[in-house]
TrEMBL record:
Coiled coil: none
GO biological process, any: fatty acid metabolic process
Name of the protein described by the UniProt record: 3-hydroxyacyl-CoA dehydrogenase
PROSITE patterns: 3HCDH (PS00067)
Site annotation Important for catalytic activity: residues: 127
InterPro entries, sorted: 3-OHacyl-CoA_DH (IPR022694), 3-OHacyl-CoA_DH_CS (IPR006180), 3-OHacyl-CoA_DH_NAD-bd (IPR006176), 3HC_DH_C (IPR006108), 6-PGluconate_DH-like_C_sf (IPR008927), 6PGD_dom2 (IPR013328), NAD(P)-bd_dom_sf (IPR036291)
Length: 269
């Protein structure tokens, strides 16, 4: 999601430093941004000139130290606490004292991430939704230590991006994934138990409940590994067996069937 977040900031007029750990990841991200800007031009949401200027605002880098001038960090690393916590500890030492450290995490505790830093009052959740340039919602998550000033600044910033910020307190999965992931998990159980095929389950939700995408097609879009990581956070954080990941989901992730990004999940791509 990092490329989508960079896209909306650049489109809104902000200079962006886009950091990743491999050049191939940066190249892929920039290609996605360029493609999505072209799509907006085709739909007359941007002029060709505006697209060129937006893209020029994004500076890719493999050097963490290059992030030193940033006044806001939006982290969008893999949904695993050890990876995110290492990033927050490192970047806390690099960014200026007044900088806000935001995480795009979809389930991990903002309070725990804040405790990894020397500025816990300036740590907050800024959870965007895929595809970021299209989806209006941003969950703005307060950790226990998050100051009112940090919240107010991030809320105002989300509005500048053309998004609708919704305030949520820190809890496993927040609102979106605490409700969504059990539904996806139950759909996977239904496949495993032979209740219906993935296509049939998705059709029930699309035709019977007016969902634009069924839960299993959505899981493939999100990434089955991401769904599994979030369910594990919910299971561990809330201690309720109803969040236990379906064994079929675990096996599919073990097999490398991660959904759209791997070419195979509940469907083939």
């Amino acid at each position: 999601m990092g490329n989508g977040i960079a896209h909306v900031f650049a489109r809104a007029g902000f200079p962006v430093l886009l950091y990743d750990i491999q050049q191939s990841f940066l190249d892929r991200g920039l290609a996605a941004i360029e493609k999505n800007l072209a799509r907006e031009v085709a739909k007359s949401k941007l002029t060709p000139a505006e697209s060129v200027v937006a893209l020029s605002r994004i500076i890719p880098t493999l050097d963490r130290e290059a992030l030193a001038p940033a006044t806001l960090l939006v982290e969008a690393a893999t949904e695993q606490f050890p990876i995110k916590s290492e990033l927050f500890r490192a970047l806390d030492k690099i960014l200026p004292e007044e900088a806000i450290l935001a995480s795009n995490t979809s389930s991990i505790s903002i309070t725990k991430l804040a405790a990894q830093t020397q500025r816990p009052d300036k740590v907050i959740g800024m959870h965007f939704f895929n595809p970021v340039p299209v989806m209006a919602l941003v969950e703005v998550i307060r950790g226990l230590q998050t100051s009112q000033d940090t919240y107010d600044r991030v809320h105002a910033l989300a509005l500048q991006l053309g998004k609708t910020p919704v305030e949520v307190n820190d809890a496993p999965g927040f609102v979106s994934n605490r409700v969504l992931m059990p539904m996806i998990n139950e759909a996977v159980f239904s496949v495993m138990e032979g209740v219906a095929t993935p296509a049939a389950i998705d059709q029930v939700f699309q035709l019977g409940m007016a969902h634009p995408m069924g839960p299993l097609a959505l899981a493939d879009f999100i990434g089955l590994d991401v769904c599994l990581d979030i369910l594990r956070v919910l299971h561990e954080g809330l201690g309720d067996p109803k969040y236990r990941p379906c064994p079929l989901l675990v096996r599919m992730v073990d097999a490398g069937w991660l959904g759209r990004k791997s070419g195979r999940g509940f469907y083939r791509y």
